[in-house]
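Subject: sequence -> structure tokens, single chain

Hey, anyone have a minute? Need the predicted structure for the following. Not urgent.
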Amino acid sequence: MPVVVVGGAVLLLMPGMAFGEPPVPDGRPLVLPSGAFTGTWRDEDGGRLVLRADGTFASDGTCGDFSGPGLTDALSPAPGAGTWSASGTNADVPVTRVQVGFAPGGVWTVYEARGTAERPVLWQHLGDPDDGALCVLSRAGT
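Reply:
Had a minute. Here:
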């Protein structure tokens, strides 16, 4: 009988979890100048993204939710390279977005800045935000 009570309590809590806010990394959305993003970023699985001041990048195994031409799902070239840019958004909450575009092939993705100016992260949801999977890139050495 106790198993039914506990199981029932869990089932009652699950709908609330389904309607809660999707997870995000710690910190607040950040607005930073482009120069703040240059350098090496790593994900928790060892993927590496190097953003250079000249607007080019190199990537090797970096996590992300990538799109190809026509907004089709795509895999990140690994290793890969291309160009990147940072821009603000016009959303209710100002945040800088970093877009990387692989050449050739047109595969791209967009990360958002979050955290603090001293410890920023680049992040995005992987797939459906309600699934809770995140890609988080931290500055190498932090």
